[in-house]
Amino acid sequence: MKVSKRDVYILLIFVGILAVVAAYFLVYQPNIESAEALEAENAQLQQRIADLSGKMENKDSYVADTASMKEEMDAILKQFPVDVREEDGVLLAINQELIAPMVIDSIGITANEPTVLPDAEEEDVDHTYEVEEIEEYEAQEGIADEAEQAADAEGGGVANEDMPYVLMQRSVTMNYLVSYDGLKRGVKNISVQDNRMSINNLTVSYDESTGLLSGTTVVDMYCIPGQDKEYVQPNFSSVLLGSDNIFGSLETYGIGQLDLGESAADGEEAEGEAAEGEAAGN
């Protein structure tokens, strides 16, 4: 079969068109898409680098702010004891009796449990970078060690591990009789305590039988475990403990003072008659 030049030209044109189309879809278009993706990623990285560079320029300010916030946190932690135990609640009740004064009928002390705080609204924070990427960038630029050394030198907490501080509370419920003035003194005494505590609930009612106020006060005593300090035992040296006479006062009674009942009296009369008979026989 003889092929004409015209057919050859048409075939060559068709093959060329196929080659151009294949090159476009198989080579050019993938390279264009890859280039666009790399350009977009490069733009994001440039923004992150600019952001991190700005933070690095303000490193001294951040370190100083971190040290200042750490001092404020330490000052707050110092206001809370490391533990609150049952004896602290007992001593509070004893002080209330002495200072108010009041007569406490009973005391209830709960276990030490985490404080339930009101739900706070979560802030919507737009994070523009990831921690791993920051660490990688710092490692590449060699600035991580410099930041940690500067923080340690100025007393900052950047290089230290975070400690999970949890606010704990123990509730003390006191039931008592007190006058109105004594109630006010008792409330003031709670407010001036060195350890952090608050009145969770206070209920009083007038007692007609005594002319006093019958009340119940629930006091929440707070502590923060995990601090770098020790628990301070309460001082009971001023509290009177025990009694010189552990059995109380005893009184002795004669036979005539005891209520022996009819059977015992009849027995005594029979014994008396028998004794008289023996004496008469003798």
Please explain how this structure is put together.
The protein is 50% helix and 16% strand. It is an alpha+beta fold and 282 residues long. Among the domains are: 5-57; 80-118 and 162-229, Ribosomal protein S6/Translation elongation factor EF1B (Alpha-Beta Plaits, 2-Layer Sandwich), CATH 3.30.70.60. Strands 1, 2, 3, 4 and 5 form a five-stranded antiparallel β-sheet that branches. Helix 3 (86-99) crosses helix 6. The longest helix is centred in the N-terminal third of the chain and has 53 residues, at 5-57. It starts with a helix and ends with a helix.
Please specify the SSE layout and strand pairing:
Elements: H1 5-57, H2 59-78, H3 86-99, E1 102-109, E2 113-114, H4 131-141, H5 144-153, E3 168-178, H6 180-191, E4 197-207, E5 212-223, H7 261-281
Helix pairs in contact: 3-6
What's the gist of this structure?
With 282 residues, this protein is of the alpha+beta class. The chain has seven helices and five strands; from the N terminus they run αααββααβαββα.
Keywords:
alpha+beta, 5-stranded antiparallel sheet
- Give the class from helix and strand content and strand pairing: alpha+beta
| Rg calculated over all Cα atoms | 44 Å
Distance between the termini: 177 Å
Mean pLDDT: 74
- In percent, how much strand structure appears in the residues? 15-25%
Encode the helix/strand succession as letters: HHHEEHHEHEEH
Going by CATH, what is the homologous superfamily of the domain at 80-118 and 162-229? Ribosomal protein S6/Translation elongation factor EF1B
Secondary structure: number of strands: 5
Q: Based on CA inertia axes, which overall geometry fits? A: rod-shaped
Q: Given this structure, which CATH class of the domain at 80-118 and 162-229 is correct?
A: Alpha Beta
Query: What is the name of the CATH topology of the domain at 80-118 and 162-229?
Result: Alpha-Beta Plaits
| Total count of helical runs of at least 4 residues | 7
Named at the architecture level, the CATH assignment of the domain at 80-118 and 162-229 is 2-Layer Sandwich
- Residue stretches low in confidence (pLDDT < 50, at least 5 long) are 120-129, 146-161, 250-268
Q: Main sheet, how many strands, which sense, barrel?
A: 5 strands, antiparallel
In helices, the fraction of residues equals 40-55%
